Amino acid sequence: MGPQTVLILPLSALDCEGFSAIVCIVKDIVGDLQKLKDPKRAKILARFFKTGKGEYGEGTVFWGITVPDVRSVAKKHLDIPLSIINRLLSSRIYEHRLTALIILVEKYRKAKESDKKKIVNFYLSNTKRVNSWGLVDLTADKILGNYLLKKDKSILYRLARSKNLWERRIATISTFEFIKNNKFTDSLKIAQLLLRDEHDLIHKAVGWMLREIGKRDQRTEERFLKKHYNSMPRTMLRYAIERFNERKRRLYLRR
């Protein structure tokens, strides 16, 4: 019985007797989530996260569970090993992966330095499963960004050049941790690398990080904008200048 089959079977079809401990723990977590399903909300989320054929979220299934409710389930299972997190991440159901990643963030936050490296390596080996902006934004700065704060950051530049949309977004959002610590250099370099990216989700992510820099140091943000605003995608620019006064926003948008 493969991991995906276990995770999407009805709860009544699962019986711990005769199965491994991993399957039994997964059954418990999935059972807790299954009680919170909301079909109406699931349909709305499926449209919002673009799960149609050919869209960026194609193949993802939603159960319609709110993030606070998912967090309440995750909180009950924070001691699960990476092997079980890996099982949950292999599911096509969004809330399974969300639960896994909420737990992973908490495990990282509480881990010793040696264990943090293992968690980061696990995260990097699963970037293709962190395949939604909601999942990226929940984890990238808190795991990868935090780990790299005082370390070599070359991995972020490799991710920023990836053909995989989610790896490029991970590279961008990871730098939020640097920004929160008033370190802007890598955020600006990655923003420059992604100025000509074709995907709207990257435009929004880069614009958001530029806006966060501006909250802390508007001069630094504006130096970057004055150099690049003429060539920036419109969405990226709009996100970046969102907090500016109306007069200044009009000046930047007049091009």
Number of strands: 0
Question: How can the largest sheet be summarized?
Answer: none
Low-confidence regions: 1-14
| Category by helix and strand content | mainly alpha
Mean pLDDT: 92
Classify the oligomer. single chain
- Beta percentage is under 5%
Percentage of residues assigned to helices: 55-70%
Spatial shape: globular
Listing every helix as H and every strand as E from the N terminus to the C terminus, the arrangement reads: HHHHHHHHHHHHHHHHH
Number of domains: 2
- The helix count comes to 17
Termini separation: 58 Å
Nearest-angstrom radius of gyration?
A: 20 Å
Provide tags for this entry:
17 helices; Leucine-rich Repeat Variant; mainly alpha; single chain
Question: What would your notes on this structure say?
Answer:
The chain has 255 residues and is mainly alpha-helical. The chain folds into two domains: 1-130, no CATH class; 140-255, Alpha Horseshoe (Leucine-rich Repeat Variant), CATH 1.25.10. The protein is built from 17 helices and no strands. The longest helix is centred in the middle third of the chain and has 17 residues, at 94-110. The radius of gyration is 20 Å and the shape is globular.
What is this structure, in a nutshell?
The protein is mainly alpha-helical and 255 residues long.
What's the helix and strand layout?
Elements: H1 3-8, H2 21-34, H3 39-48, H4 67-75, H5 82-89, H6 94-110, H7 113-125, H8 133-139, H9 141-148, H10 154-160, H11 165-174, H12 176-180, H13 185-193, H14 200-216, H15 218-228, H16 234-240, H17 246-253
